[in-house]
Amino acid sequence: MLINRWYHNPVRKLAIVTAFVAWAGAAMAQSTPADNEVWVVSGSLSESYIDNLFLIDEGPGDWVTNASVSLAYFRTRPPNSFSAYGWLGGSYFDRFDVYNGLKYGAGFAGENGLDRRARVRYSGPFADGLNRKAFYDGRLGLPEIDVKSGYAATGLDYDFTDSTSGRLSADLSGVHYRLDARELLSAAADFLSPPTIPNPVEPGGGNPNLAPLIILEQLALEGFLVRDLDYWTWHFGAGLGHEFSESTQASLDLGVRSSTTETIGVPDGRLYDASFTLNHKLDPTAGVSLGYVYQHADYDRVTQTHSIFGRAQKEFSEKLHGDVTLGATHLDGSTDESSSWSFIGGAGLTLRLKRTSLAARASRSVYQGVIAGRRQIADELSGSVSHVFGKRVFAAGYLSYRNAQDTELDVYSSEQLFGGVALSLRLSERFFLTPTYSYALYDRGQLGPSPSRSSFGISLSYSKAFK
After folding, report:
1. Could you tell me if 264 and 292 are in contact, meaning their C-beta atoms sit under 8 angstroms apart?
2. 323: how many CB neighbours lie within 10 A of its CB?
3. Residue 225 CB neighbour total at 10 angstroms
4. CB-facing half-sphere around the CA of 51: CA atoms within 13 A
5. Of 44, 262, 231, 29, whose CA–CA distance to 137 is shortest?
6. What is the pLDDT of residues 301-354, one digit of tens each?
7. Taking CA 66 as the corner, what is the angle to CA 229 and CA 14, rounded to the nearest 5 degrees?
8. Which class for 182: exposed (0-12), middle (13-18), buried (19 or more C-beta within 10 A)?
9. Average pLDDT of 58-86?
10. 429 CB contacts (<8 Å, ≥6 apart)?
């Protein structure tokens, strides 16, 4: 009885996952000879003011101090590689001291060549709290009371011939989340903020510990706003790729995902998916692709979707790149009235000059929920600009608008506007000073007032690499 209670505690489950992946990563690291080893130590200290902390109508503001340190290790010897990292962060709220506390996380990732044809991939992050370094200072998110997440993944790539390859993958992730009652009023607003805008200050930067946000965003889209969540999901996938020529390739992928939760009101279920993609390179500067995606969700409500698309990309010059995507998605509902086609697609342009970069994108996408079967059509516009003034000064601005319409209940329709500016000042070889400002507006439609949130802050960061 005691063993059963210990094992079914979600926090201890995450500890088991973390211990397993840490042991596996250490074993892989020992088997990876080193041609190159690099350590990177970094830290940051920031102060920001958020005028509407919970993104509710006339909500309170607060000053927030954040500090973090991290250590990363990279070890490579082609075709083998291994990396590991750890971070520790703390937050101090001037008014809402209930959110004060430390957060930490660690993880690793790597790839090992078993022989000339086979390669194995693996990764395993764990976090107690969310590492805010991957977000804009202004998009603080919701101050969490208790967030723990763990993730373990592995994969095998195998080359059957010089032109045909196969792949297998498996992953397991879990989230333990406890939400303050005040945050229920703004949960959907924050999770629906545009999650895909690239960070202009730290391009290419990312946080592998985003499982809590991804899962909570999906639940918010479905209409579930829960205070307590213990959520587990696993996925198995298999794929096959073939190169018909140097300019034509095709790939087929199959997968199944199962999710389990101990939260009342959120159902368990299983998702099956399949996709096929054909890519063709017209010349060194242009290419086209065709694709098909099938999804079958078996939760409380069974849904099936079929999506087809075509994509073209073109390098008009070394500085100007563009792409266009056109397609459609069909929902197989239980009745003819609930079955429908929806247009999807988009277009984007990127201009890179000597010191200035511009990017713009317009798109229409369809979110098909798999838990409650909710269907949402979203039109998005986004743009960004950045400029390097010299060796020590870099500035960037970004703006995004999203209009999401629910096809069944208009109460879940919404509009969001998100934007900001950032300035990066290089004080020395290793120190950077970054003032930022951001603004977010969320139109709840029929749910009530349209709250907004402004944030300005300044951060001092340090980074050093050594062997």
Report:
1. no
2. 15
3. 16
4. 13
5. 44
6. 788 889 999 999 999 999 999 999 999 998 886 666 567 888 999 999 999 999
7. 30
8. middle
9. 88
10. none
- Give me the phi and psi of 394, to 5 degrees please: -140, 135
CA distances to 48, 141, 144, 145, 401 from 183, in Å = 20, 10, 9, 10, 23
Q: Which residues pair with 332 in a beta bridge?
A: 304
Tokens of 380: 């998005």
Confidence class for position 26, pLDDT limits 50, 70, 90: low
Evaluate whether 24 touches 112 at the Cβ level (below 8 Å).
no
Quote the distance between the C-alpha of residue 71 and its chain's center.
Answer: 22
Query: Nearest Cα to 86, choosing from 109, 106, 110, 68?
Result: 106
CA distance 368 to 372: 10
Residue 399 identity (one-letter amino acid) = L
Q: 463 with 78: CB under 8 angstroms? A: no
User: How far is Cα 326 from Cα 47, in angstroms, rounded to an integer?
Assistant: 44
Reading the block at residue 303, the tokens are 């849904």
∠81-86-89 over CA atoms, to 5°? 150
- DSSP state letter for 430: S
Q: Position 232: which residue type?
A: W
Q: What is the dihedral angle through the alpha carbons of 278, 283, 285, 287, rounded to the nearest 10 degrees? A: -20
Residue 310, class by beta-carbon neighbours within 10 Å (0-12 exposed, 13-18 middle, 19+ buried)? middle
Q: Please, what sign has the CA dihedral across residues 231, 374, 145, 125?
A: positive
* Whether the Cβ atoms of residue 211 and residue 173 lie closer than 8 Å to each other: yes
Backbone angles phi, psi at 132, to 5 degrees: -75, -10
Residue 50 and residue 65 in contact, taking contact as beta carbons nearer than 8 Å: no
DSSP 457: E
Sequence-separated contacts (24+) of 12-16 with Cβ below 8 Å: 13/150, 13/174, 13/232, 14/126, 14/148, 14/149, 14/150, 14/174, 14/176, 15/150
pLDDT of residue 323: 95
Residue whose token pair is 């996709």: 275
Contact between 386 and 202 under an 8 Å Cβ cutoff? The reply is: no
Residue 401 makes CB contacts below 8 A (sequence gap 6+) with 380, 381, 382, 415, 416, 417, 418
CA trace torsion 430, 436, 441, 442 (10° rounding): 20
Backbone angles phi, psi at 447, to 5 degrees: -75, -15
The average confidence (pLDDT) of the chain is 79
Measured in whole angstroms, how far is the alpha carbon of residue 453 from the centre of its chain? 22
The candidate with the shortest Cα–Cα distance to 380, out of 355, 406, 344, is: 344
Q: Which residue has the tokens 């999203």?
A: 402
Alpha-carbon distances, residue 132 vs 41, 237, 257, 283, 332 (angstroms): 17, 31, 28, 42, 40
Structure tokens at 10: 């979600």
**Residue of 379, 444, 449, 443 lying closest to 411 (CA atoms):** 444
Instruction: Evaluate whether 436 touches 420 at the Cβ level (below 8 Å).
Output: yes
Residue with tokens 């500090």: 67
For residue 168, what are the CA distances in angstroms to 125, 237, 242, 252?
Answer: 20, 6, 15, 12
